[in-house]
């Protein structure tokens, strides 16, 4: 009985975090879905996991942004509005918007990047 109470309490806490808009925990990230969205949107053209290409690696992005309280909101805006970005070679170009209207999929992608 005790384990079901503990499990229920843990589940309630996770639901409260989700309802409050907290970023997904690393264990909650659907890596396959995030990587499918990355592939679908050709994000690997400019980004990679751990080395610089035209743009910062996901590890570098994660290390610069983990723990920032408003980072999910900023990344959602960045991924959905096609802002101008400065590339590592000093040039600028329009960042391609993610081709999905599924906010949960975008949040999952952000959580995946931040978990690197």
How are the SSEs ordered, and which strands pair?
Blueprint: H1 2-19, H2 31-40, H3 58-65, H4 71-81, E1 84-86, E2 92-94, H5 103-114
Helix pairs in contact: 2-5, 4-5
What does this structure look like?
Helix content is 51%, strand content 5%. It has a single domain (2-114), classed as Orthogonal Bundle (Cytochrome Bc1 Complex, Chain D, domain 2). The chain is mostly helical. α2 (31-40) packs across α5 and α4 packs across α5 (103-114). The protein has five helices and two strands. It has helices spanning 2-19, 31-40, 58-65, 71-81, 103-114, and strands at 84-86, 92-94.
Count of discrete alpha- or pi-helical segments spanning 4 or more residues: 5
Biggest β-sheet strands, sense, barrel: 2 strands, antiparallel
For the termini, the CA-CA separation is: 37 Å
The tally of strands reads 2
CATH architecture identity: Orthogonal Bundle
CATH class equals: Mainly Alpha
Give the topology string: H per helix, E per strand.
HHHHEEH
Assign the CATH superfamily: Cytochrome c-like domain
Q: From the alpha-carbon coordinates, what is the Rg to the nearest angstrom?
A: 16 Å
- At CATH level 3, the topology is Cytochrome Bc1 Complex, Chain D, domain 2
Broad structural category: mainly alpha
Please state the average pLDDT score. Answer: 82
Instruction: Identify the overall geometry.
Output: globular
- Low-pLDDT segments, ≥5 res: 1-25
Number of domains: 1
- Spatially, the strands of the biggest sheet line up as 1-2
**Fraction of residues in β-strands:** 5-15%
Fraction of helical residues: 40-55%
């Amino acid at each position: 009985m005790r384990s079901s109470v503990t499990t229920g309490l843990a589940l309630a806490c996770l639901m409260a975090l989700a309802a409050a808009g907290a970023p997904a925990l690393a264990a909650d990230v659907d890596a396959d879905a995030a990587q499918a969205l990355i592939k679908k949107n050709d994000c690997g053209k400019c980004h990679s996991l751990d080395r610089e290409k035209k743009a910062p690696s996901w590890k570098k992005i994660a290390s610069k942004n983990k723990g920032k309280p408003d980072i999910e909101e900023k990344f959602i805006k960045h991924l959905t509005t096609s802002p101008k970005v400065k590339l590592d070679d000093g040039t600028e170009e329009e960042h391609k918007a993610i081709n999905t209207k599924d906010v949960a999929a975008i949040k999952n992608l952000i959580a995946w990047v931040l978990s690197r």
